[in-house]
Every structure is written in C-alpha cells, then in structure tokens.
Amino acid sequence: MAKEALIVVDVQNDFCPGGALGVEAGDEIVPIINKLILRFDHVVVTQDWHPAGHTSFASSHPGKAPFESIMMPYGPQTLWPEHCIQGTSGADFHRDLEWTKAELLVRKGFRPHVDSYSAFYENDHKTPTGLAGYLREREITNVTFAGLATDYCVAYSALDAIEHGFAVDVLLDACRGIDLGGSLASMITKMRKAGVTLI
Ligand code: VGL
Ligand code: ZN
C-alpha cells in the first residue's frame, strides 16, 4: 500500500511578493496548499533558515551582486539577496499558511558555509538533512511537493526524492518559480526526465 506525504517547501515571507527574494505570485499558492494539507494524512514543511552572513548571500562576497554565480568548494553557487535569516519575520511562514498539521519541520541552509536547496541534502550533495531516513522509517513511499521555488528548492528536493527511490509528484499549480536564466524550463525538463510526475 502506498503511503503518501505532502512536503510543503519554503512558503516563507521572504519568498512571497514584497519579501527579500520575492517570487512572483508566490503568495497565490497559499490557499491551494491549505486545501492540499487537508487532503493528506502526513504533512512535512521545510523552512529556509540561514544564519546572518550566510555564504549564499551576495553581501558576504565583496564586489558580488545578487544573482551572480561564484565557485564554491562544492561547485557553482548562485548568490542571493539576504533572505530567510533565522528568527526574522522574513523567515516566518506566510501568515495564512495552515501549517499546524505538519508532523515534521525540516530546516535547511543553517550551515554557514554551504547552501541547501534540497530538503534532503545540502548543496554539497553529501550532507543529509535526515529527511530520507525519517520518511523511510515512517514507511512513506510517495511524496508530493508544493511550494517555493519550483526551479530551486522544489526541483532539487524532487530530484533527490527520486534518487532515494520515492515515487514523486510535483503539483505545478501549487508552486511558483524564480526563473533565473531559463532555470524554470530547464529544471522542469530535468524533473520530467528523472521520472517526477508533474501535475
Ligand atoms: C530558495 C534560493 C535560495 C528556495 C532558497 O526556497 O527555492 N531559493 N534559498
Ligand atoms: Zn536560501
């Protein structure tokens, strides 16, 4: 019997319009996600959770501007405006997100020197968050993703979930993308090729 979980990715103020890294129409997905939360027996939420001065912030690299890329020991890293700093209101969930039913909250990006898009691994693709083990121990076989941003945290999480052997759905209506240099189309193609069901 398939056992399903909904994973709600980074529905935080800084990723909504007016936020530090606002995704266009990012807040439109909140009522859709609230309905999904009611339908699923198991809900996990993720929260981007950076210390001040995080290595993914352009402001941590003199002379660099947001959305430029730099080489890190673990590969290329896009630089972002300061966002989702631990304990700030920008890092809070959108006020209308009905997250109280969530059984697990996964925080990511809290290590100062490595970014984390995926809910499963840091961007070094080696350091696990523990989510895969949690889902496996709970005997969850199917995961459905919704949230922000389609082409970053949602896509990287979905690809890692496939790698871990889960059946993976991404509900595109319940996601919004950043779309940097064609990233939305390229990550959608990558997800489809990897075997993610895009709905
Ligand atoms: C995200 C960029 C930086 C995301 C998080 O949630 O997609 N994107 N940090
Ligand atoms: Zn981040």
Question: What do these coordinates show?
Answer:
This protein is α/β, with parallel strands linked by helices and 199 residues long. The protein has helices at 29-39, 131-137, 150-163, 183-194, and strands at 4-9, 43-48, 69-72, 75-78, 104-108, 142-148, 167-176, 197-198. The strands form two sheets. Strands 5-2-1-6-7-8 form a six-stranded parallel sheet. The chain has a two-stranded antiparallel ribbon with strand order 3-4. Helix 3 runs parallel beside helix 4 (183-194). It starts with a strand and ends with a strand. The site of zinc ion has 7 residues, from loops.
DSSP strand tally: 8
Most strands sheet? 6 strands, parallel
Low-confidence stretches: none
Q: If strands are numbered along the chain, what order do they take across the biggest sheet?
A: 5-2-1-6-7-8
Named once each, the bound ligands are: pyrazine-2-carboxylic acid, zinc ion
Order of helices and strands: EHEEEEHEHEHE
Structural class: alpha/beta
What would you report as the Rg, rounded to the nearest angstrom?
A: 16 Å
Strand content: 15-25%
The tally of helices reads: 4
Sum up the overall morphology in one term.
globular
Distance between the termini: 22 Å
Mean pLDDT: 96
Helix content: 10-25%
Describe this protein with a few key phrases:
single chain; about 200 residues; alpha/beta; 6-stranded parallel sheet; two-stranded antiparallel sheet; 4 helices; 8 strands; about 20% helix; about 20% strand; binds pyrazine-2-carboxylic acid; binds zinc ion
